């Protein structure tokens, strides 16, 4: 009897690779998304599709998960977006009671990864990697308002502590823009982070870690072209053992389980500054699979008692995503 996986947000960037890989492995794949089936190609590729309530309403979303997991006898749930990972945090006990495995890291790990300021404060003293120092906007306002922000070093980046996909991110070029930003965000100053802008190429590392076997595998890529919300569309996959060791050390310190992605800014070769850790598949996880390591399948191995597959040598290569049109039939 085949096992059943519920994959959420099947309209997202990573969905095609996730659904396709689990189908190839013989799983029965249930998919859901907040949009109707005829808007989403993957709705026709899963064994059954459900339209879900938005995860920003955790109670409705959790009730939906419970209903679908009971009706479809789901064994595993694989969320694809940050907001869904957040909503599942308080659903862990119910899932376990139903015999459902949530394929995400532990609660403390996710809480740390999802807060950019807490992540930086946690990692900096450990000296495992270069981080980007930051302060809350509220702290900056208290310190700098008397000078009118004229003495600050620009450019700066403002972003929500709990942001995702570059939502709410602002680049501040001078004191005038800083004054405007503080007025716009005064009510939310305690939830915004202020950091110096670090120029360079964004490097994304897909990282999978199995705590029981002590294995960590990473595949890194330079994102040469990106969408406005931060998804790479043209990338260069490369191998650097120094970066691999950093990723392994960070994943161990954070107690990662399964596949996550780290984002760095590469100022020059070998000079990486950690931006964030997203506790779910990256939008470009298909690039890692195409390059030669199945991050999707090995993610599941971290939750069903199997060791990770060994990573073979991955040559430097350029990979590109393209878009394709589909005709969708109503009522899929």
Write a structural description.
It is built from 11 helices and 16 strands. It has 332 residues and is of the alpha/beta class. It folds into 3 domains: 101 residues, Rossmann fold (3-Layer(aba) Sandwich); 143 residues, D-amino Acid Aminotransferase, Chain A, domain 1 (2-Layer Sandwich); 64 residues, ATP-grasp fold, A domain (Dna Ligase, domain 1). The protein has a 7-stranded mixed β-sheet with strand order 6-15-14-11-12-13-16, sandwiched between helices. A hairpin with a 5-residue loop joins β12 and β13. The protein is globular and about 65 Å long.
> If you average the pLDDT, what whole number results?
93
Structural class: alpha/beta
Shape: globular
Low-confidence stretches: none
Structure keywords:
seven-stranded mixed β-sheet; 332 residues; D-amino Acid Aminotransferase, Chain A, domain 1; 3 domains; alpha/beta; Rossmann fold; globular; 16 strands; Dna Ligase, domain 1; 11 helices; 30% helix
């Amino acid at each position: 009897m085949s096992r059943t996986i519920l994959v959420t947000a099947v309209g997202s960037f990573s969905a095609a690779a996730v659904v396709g890989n689990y189908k190839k492995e013989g799983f029965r794949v249930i998919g859901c998304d907040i949009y109707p089936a005829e808007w989403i190609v993957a709705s026709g590729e899963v064994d059954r599709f459900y339209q879900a309530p938005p995860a920003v309403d955790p109670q409705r979303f959790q009730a939906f998960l419970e209903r679908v997991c009971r009706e479809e006898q789901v064994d595993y749930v694989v969320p694809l977006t940050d907001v869904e990972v957040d909503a599942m945090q308080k659903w862990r006990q119910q899932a376990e009671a139903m015999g459902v495995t949530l394929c995400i890291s532990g609660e403390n790990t996710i809480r740390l990864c999802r807060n950019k300021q807490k992540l930086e404060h946690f990692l900096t003293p450990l000296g495992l990697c270069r981080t980007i120092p930051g302060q809350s906007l509220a702290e900056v306002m208290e310190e700098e308002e008397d000078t009118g922000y004229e003495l600050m070093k620009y450019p700066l980046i403002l972003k929500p502590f709990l942001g995702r996909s570059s939502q709410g991110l602002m680049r501040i070029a001078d004191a005038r823009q800083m004054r405007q930003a503080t007025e716009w965000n005064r009510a939310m100053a305690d939830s915004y982070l202020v950091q110096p802008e670090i120029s360079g190429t964004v490097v994304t590392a897909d990282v999978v870690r199995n705590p029981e076997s002590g294995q960590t595998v990473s595949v890194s890529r330079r994102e040469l072209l990106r969408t406005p919300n931060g998804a790479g569309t043209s990338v260069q996959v490369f191998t650097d053992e120094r970066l691999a060791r950093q990723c392994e050390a960070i994943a161990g310190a954070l107690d990662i389980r399964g596949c996550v992605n780290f984002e760095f800014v590469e100022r020059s070769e070998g000079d990486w500054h950690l931006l964030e850790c997203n506790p779910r598949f990256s939008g470009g996880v298909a690039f890692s699979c195409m390059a030669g390591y199945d991050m999707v399948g090995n993610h599941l191995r971290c939750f069903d008692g199997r060791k990770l597959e060994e990573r073979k040598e991955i040559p430097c290569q350029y990979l590109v995503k393209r878009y394709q049109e589909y005709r969708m039939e109503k009522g899929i």
